[in-house]
Fold each of these.
Amino acid sequence: MFSQEVYIARRATLKSNLKKGVLLFPGNGESGMNCKDNWYPFRQDSTFLYYTGINIPDVYFVIDIENDEEILFGNNPTPEEIVWIGAVTPLEELAAKAGIKTVRPLKELASYVQKAQQREAVHYLPPYRPATVVQICQFLNIPVSEVEKKCSVPFIKAVVAQREIKEAIEVEQIHKAVNTTAAMHTYAMQNAVAGKTEKEIAGDLQAIAIGGGGNISFPIILTTNGQYLHNHATENKIKNGNLVLCDCGAETSMGYAGDMTRTFPSAARFTDLQKEVYNIVLYAHNSAIETLEPGVRFKDVHLLAASKLVEGLKGMGLMKGNTDEAVHAGAHTLFFQCGLGHMMGLDVHDMENLGEPYVGYTDSLEKSTVFGLKSLRLGKELQEGFVITVEPGIYFNPFLIDAWKAQNKYADFVNYAAVEKFKDFGGIRIEEDFLITKNGSKLLGNPLAKTVDDVEALKNAI
Amino acid sequence: MFSQEVYIARRATLKSNLKKGVLLFPGNGESGMNCKDNWYPFRQDSTFLYYTGINIPDVYFVIDIENDEEILFGNNPTPEEIVWIGAVTPLEELAAKAGIKTVRPLKELASYVQKAQQREAVHYLPPYRPATVVQICQFLNIPVSEVEKKCSVPFIKAVVAQREIKEAIEVEQIHKAVNTTAAMHTYAMQNAVAGKTEKEIAGDLQAIAIGGGGNISFPIILTTNGQYLHNHATENKIKNGNLVLCDCGAETSMGYAGDMTRTFPSAARFTDLQKEVYNIVLYAHNSAIETLEPGVRFKDVHLLAASKLVEGLKGMGLMKGNTDEAVHAGAHTLFFQCGLGHMMGLDVHDMENLGEPYVGYTDSLEKSTVFGLKSLRLGKELQEGFVITVEPGIYFNPFLIDAWKAQNKYADFVNYAAVEKFKDFGGIRIEEDFLITKNGSKLLGNPLAKTVDDVEALKNAI
């Protein structure tokens, strides 16, 4: 936990922004895999962590703004439970560390909330776990199907406005997470060689994340099929000559995430063709980074990166025509189907559960619905204190190539005859994490090999 | 997946046992950690796996016994989804591999079930994930609070009667899981030394499980506080002289579990005192194994192990009086608070979600409610084909020692003055997995070092 003052100050800001209402913060419970009591690793709700730092299951926190009340609801273990689990920090002590003065048993929560509901609005954020949906339905007497709809937009906006600006102590945590993430990548580059299965390497990467005190921040992508964006490690054996795309991240024991991608050859060196595509992605990556600063719309950075990719693809004879027109038309999305990056913090896609319209966009800048831009999670103007990822890529997706070739889609900009030969090339992505500073941006984590030469040198260092 | 015939035969047996009704098998969905789409590793429901072998999220299976209908409900990915995930096996092909002839879109499930409900009973097993509770509540129009109560006891009993008798192909899978589990233990014995954190070792163990093609079968216990039974790996550093208790297991890619425990010194050798307690547990362990055979009540094996522990503790001057009377009174539960073992199969605590009254006990043998026996998950007579764990232990639990000493509880059997000196000793457990055979039992997995000498030799082999 951070110091008491941190949590008190965060809550004070939230209360002064919202001015009235009762705020309900459901902590997460344990989550069963194949029965109730065989659990996945516990993960606290990030907003709960942000305002309380209390990282245990089955607690709720409530703020009654007008009555200036803050209550942690939960149960201390019984003496018999302590026999099974050993000594635990009492809730009163955890609450005190967070500057929360009142602790009450969990069984009083429902009646407390129902009483509060009679006099004023009870606000809650969009629940994402079915267990929380069921609890809210029971506490607030709302049908299950209404729970999501009735979440509080003012509460969402107030939380986003706070959490999106990272404090120095948070940046330190993220720096630490990114360094563990970089250690995972170093291991992957040096060990993901022909004969190993993707899962073997993914398991080793998770071990590094756990050894760092936390866990993985999202399911590891370690794949020789990097052209598919949502592809996880399988029992496939890596073959010589494969490109390996590794997109992974660690989170610290406090829950702060790292998220990086490297793409490298399973062999000792990139082939000339792999190198050529890699350098296009790297050029787009570096070009995007140079433009990062407060006031810049990330959607524009995304489009800039897209235009750099198009320039490179034109150089290779895979695209043609006017670059700006190609990007405007969306022709680059044959190769770059997704967004350039996203917010990062206590969640790898920070505050994803609060909704992209609030986290990545604004009332005046709505998210596009067209292919490509609809997958851009962050579009709005950058502010000092944002932490974001920058992750351009080129993905030769055979399904998309076949489908669009059949439609002759973007024929003015795409040389399908040339593209056809890349259907088994794979995909390349390069991703790093940045803090937006007063005048630009700062790389988070210590630098990790990124150029072709540096990646090859690191790969072959053992 | 096993061959088509396996699943067809399993379902035929189930149908002939139940004779009528509509059986609902909810497959599990993805489970979000800190938002809906940041997932824990997918784990299919074990009963779903048992009857279909289909290991993907978001499918339901229904059997209408009287109409001789078997339907897999689910959705194939859209062409756009295939762009993101790559080629997947179509549901029709998966269904065919399981011998299921009909596939229908998920959106038709609710109306199918509601129509069926009008003519006859729709049976379902106790749901353990809140998402499944919500789905059943919506499909069958039952209030959330009623869903658990209305599950089908005949369906539970029929499933238990089948799943508790392991087929040869299942035993092979468990053997494989146990061997991966043994590899985890070998690593732990050789690497859990002073200076490492518990979590570092636990992460490495998980990597071995994942590298085996599946994952961990339950949260890893890797602790220097083995006296607390529900204690997971922490960021504590292991110290020289500590006893390390490692209780972990892998599951295969098909979902079959292993579950073993070893306790070993962080130093090169056990101390004389550690050795003395270890040998008592080992004696109880071996004595219990010798009695395993069909027809023996596991509750009696548990009590036999308890009496062997008491004999040993008497030899050390920690207990006194008549052994049988001590066990009958429950005095051994100061040191052995839990049960001797449990069923194992597609779940580490096999079929735990179906309820211990059905899995571990019978209509005529109810589970005891007294301290100690109430934690014995398996009490009933063993049958050929059962797979069970045997895991006696001695746990010097300071909270329990203090509490019972203050009450002078079991004063006729416990030498509290002597026990007092063991409050910082820790705990020792030895656990292996056995198949009940026609005439006895068979150890699953290749033998792993278990005696003091063998554990020390394996520890120091690197």
Amino acid sequence: MKVAFIGLGNMGGPMVRNLLKAGHDVAVHDLDAHAVSEAVKAGAAPALSPKVAVQGVDVVMTMLPAAQHVRTVLAADNGVFEGIARGITIIDSSTIDPASAKAFAGLAAERGVTFVDAPVSGGTGGAAAGTLTFMVGASAESYAHVKPVLSAMGKNIVHCGETGTGQVAKICNNLILGITMAGVAEAMSLGERLGIDPAVLAGIVNTSTGRCWSSEAYNPFPGLVDAAPSSRGYTGGFGTDLMLKDLGLASDAAKLARQPVFLGALAQQLYQAMSANGDGKLDFSAVIKLYRKD
Amino acid sequence: MKVAFIGLGNMGGPMVRNLLKAGHDVAVHDLDAHAVSEAVKAGAAPALSPKVAVQGVDVVMTMLPAAQHVRTVLAADNGVFEGIARGITIIDSSTIDPASAKAFAGLAAERGVTFVDAPVSGGTGGAAAGTLTFMVGASAESYAHVKPVLSAMGKNIVHCGETGTGQVAKICNNLILGITMAGVAEAMSLGERLGIDPAVLAGIVNTSTGRCWSSEAYNPFPGLVDAAPSSRGYTGGFGTDLMLKDLGLASDAAKLARQPVFLGALAQQLYQAMSANGDGKLDFSAVIKLYRKD
Amino acid sequence: MKVAFIGLGNMGGPMVRNLLKAGHDVAVHDLDAHAVSEAVKAGAAPALSPKVAVQGVDVVMTMLPAAQHVRTVLAADNGVFEGIARGITIIDSSTIDPASAKAFAGLAAERGVTFVDAPVSGGTGGAAAGTLTFMVGASAESYAHVKPVLSAMGKNIVHCGETGTGQVAKICNNLILGITMAGVAEAMSLGERLGIDPAVLAGIVNTSTGRCWSSEAYNPFPGLVDAAPSSRGYTGGFGTDLMLKDLGLASDAAKLARQPVFLGALAQQLYQAMSANGDGKLDFSAVIKLYRKD
Amino acid sequence: MKVAFIGLGNMGGPMVRNLLKAGHDVAVHDLDAHAVSEAVKAGAAPALSPKVAVQGVDVVMTMLPAAQHVRTVLAADNGVFEGIARGITIIDSSTIDPASAKAFAGLAAERGVTFVDAPVSGGTGGAAAGTLTFMVGASAESYAHVKPVLSAMGKNIVHCGETGTGQVAKICNNLILGITMAGVAEAMSLGERLGIDPAVLAGIVNTSTGRCWSSEAYNPFPGLVDAAPSSRGYTGGFGTDLMLKDLGLASDAAKLARQPVFLGALAQQLYQAMSANGDGKLDFSAVIKLYRKD
């Protein structure tokens, strides 16, 4: 297949390499010339604008920081909409708010183009290994169409429902994640203060009703899980500022829907306090630093 | 072994039956004559007071609603301390605050008696089936001593550390549980409002970083997990007022330790709002009713 | 002076009447023809577009629901920027985020135009009576320039600092307001539940360290303050959805600034819960309904 | 009148001096010999136990740290109940939970004694100046009886209702205080971050709907109110650990009453975080340190 890929950051770069490995023909565009030249070395064809990149392709992928960038790439001068043919599908793997995803789908439809939201989980490690999870918001037909392309980059390609539901799945999962991580940090710190060995406490929680990904795979207490950022000074992993972005999308979507998110809003403030303390680049599990001294 | 068991409620009753089945000799006491007569039918010997019950036994067990009841049973007139011999061990399986557990251990030590805290998880189902988890706070020696007795009533007998740490483990686990359940309720309700199929959302969460016992085994959204209270009108299970008791113990212990529990304190208020709404007897997963109309 | 006024809603309508009463010459524009004809009856001149309205005026005023409307009125086709002369000042009395206010000032400056933010407090009553408070973000020179115009509509014209600080003052004040009102609701409900006469409690609070505008002038407990919405079924006053808008602006500004607003974020969720319950149109003091049955 | 006064701490000491100045005959008791000798120098008669102190007096006053101390002073060996005559009134000015106050009243009634709760506001300054506010929970008859005694020590003697309502008034007022102070800290810090002059912001808030005792008389932002602890490094004033005690009483009373206190519980955690940071002895307005760097 001929694929245009726009957005060659920490995620987009390795995703393109996996598309190329799978035998796809990939035209790439990014504002960062270095990122483009890396992709070209891997076999991609450079394009000077989104408009140029999308000409003659079967499918377009975008992987961008926020909704405003997606809007620009699609609708600004020399954007995707100026070059794309009717009937083609755009797959946006950026994490953005569901309302914007629906709005972009509407703009695309006016041009006879299909827009599919397909945010990912799995991080840069999953992008490199080709083991991402894609949460796809699309009609059944569009889902069937995009699945083979996405399979080159991911292991789980989940159909979430109509357009926008991919984003809904992503932000709802990360809403739980942001809450449970802070909750585990709170309980591990309390336990330590009350005199229980943190390793013993984690062992009990992980075989009991408190067990969760944040306690088992990614425990924020230092030294309990070798592979977790907490065992290497909270470096790498999923940055606090990225968690803040996702909780912000969740609380914004909740505001629009007039739906309370009590714990999510409070968790957001906790990560915001971390960011205010200068820890925004640390892995989000460093939220435990709000509760205990090192 | 000869065991005295004081407190024959929903938990204590079936625990005594499992002790008897395992061949132990059990003397029982409770203020409720009916509960005593049920235990007697199962083979226990009735005692008119804790003082009488503990005479000549090898080990004493207590299973009571709150610390004040434990204090009365131990130290009031005709209480355990009046009848117990030096060298005997008291196992308290009530869920109480760690500070009280330590205080009771101190009072016991003054009498040459050992006090072990061993709160349980597993609920009335686990009590009946003999599959409880016991979280034991005791010296290594005392742990070795009580383990065979507890094995008659439970499947996992976990040594948490010194006296009081059994209670610490229990309240820290349930602190996480109270937070994650409300967090899952929040995210499931938000997802529903934003248009994703709740079953699809739960499926994604359960294979992703949001997964937790509250989403997998006990999802609060009705109809997703057959065995969960959410699929039977939030009846049975773990009552909201019991969760409130445990979160109260956690926030009280945190207050004493000058340790913040931001999310725990907020979760406590959410369950309190449920209780104020008259839903205190429902399973705690009914917290989702604060977020969505049925 | 010759004034263009764009936005003739519940606030803008009466503000125009006060400008006319003060002898100003006013050209008006609104998408709602009825609102325009009411202003025309009062003596204003109708204009078919912002572009037309601003031609030849000394000052331009805008009073619109949100930043997106201000952007459209200023920068869209037939907008203010197409018709305004260099050197003229735009006064925006909409409540919007400080960052947008600064961005609009930047766009205006590119055209040799001054943009001043001047959000108001005092509600529709103050707009009708000409007793609004204007919180003005402007250079000292611009403040001196706009003060006489604003004085026709308001009693207190406060200079808050440079552009954007008018909005900062507004959202910070309303952040406190949203928190204190919910706090007073919480304490009044707790007091009632614990058996104190609410009137006695309010009397004590109002002469003690708990006193605040929300307890004195606007107590949410029904029947204590005759003039307050709580004494007329929470009708009139400051709608919950408007409070939600302002708390949303505050928490968004805090998010951008990486500044935690723990209580503000939680208060926002409380009002959001009210709105979810269908009470978004009630006065915001109806937040007490989350705490007590009528 | 002949008064017994038990509890000669930072508050009780100066209160006794004012009783003596007003011509009362005062017998005092405290575990701290130095505090007793200071009172004796001022003219009081020392007593070796509460039992001895209360013999032959017209009224008994207690001013103690917490409910457990009141219980001991009243009901332990050599306590008040052993020495007090039928018909005498005990005035307890300690700040304790309303349920304990009612329980003590019940114990007193069994002995033909009247128990009145009369917690104070005004701090050590008010105690020294004799300008305390007493919040009195008592029957109308008892209130009339104790008012003249209290007038020697305070300026406002407020009748709150039946026994226990004095404590209810105190904790409800301080619940609002704890919330508004943190809310003002939050908004002042946000405003500073967003570029408004804190003095200007405080001026606007204090003439608008955000005004409250915490912004006007006791603004937590340093340098705005000369007489406030924020202008002297948060020393003196009302200690964070005392605020924590009162918020703890409020949240405990709310828990018993099954009444949610969302903001109060969160505010409590904020002060707890301060205390965990080692700032428990600072004035409670130092909560602003959680939001901004000095």
